[in-house]
Design brief:
By secondary structure, this protein is α/β, with parallel strands linked by helices. It has one domain. It has two helices and five strands; from the N terminus they run ββαβββα. The model has no long low-confidence stretch (mean pLDDT about 95).
Length: about 70
């Protein structure tokens, strides 16, 4: 979980490879904590929905989002 300065909470699972598939624990934590956004950060470049409320995002793009 990442708590942002404006009070928004994001759930993040980081994957080393090109597969952006969250583990069961990610979904369980999201059920408990109800984050505003849910991301799977992976080493690829594409951004796409994994499920209706989970988004795959490349590590570079995710870092740019955090910086900006």
């Amino acid at each position: 979980m990442l708590d942002l300065p404006k009070g928004e909470r994001w759930a993040i699972e980081i994957k080393r490879g090109l597969t952006a598939k969250p583990e069961r624990g990610f979904y369980l934590a999201c059920e408990d904590l109800q984050p505003a956004r849910r991301f799977v950060v992976y080493s690829g470049d594409m951004r796409y929905p994994v499920t209706a409320d989970v988004e795959a995002i490349g590590v570079r793009e995710f870092a740019e989002r955090l910086a900006g």
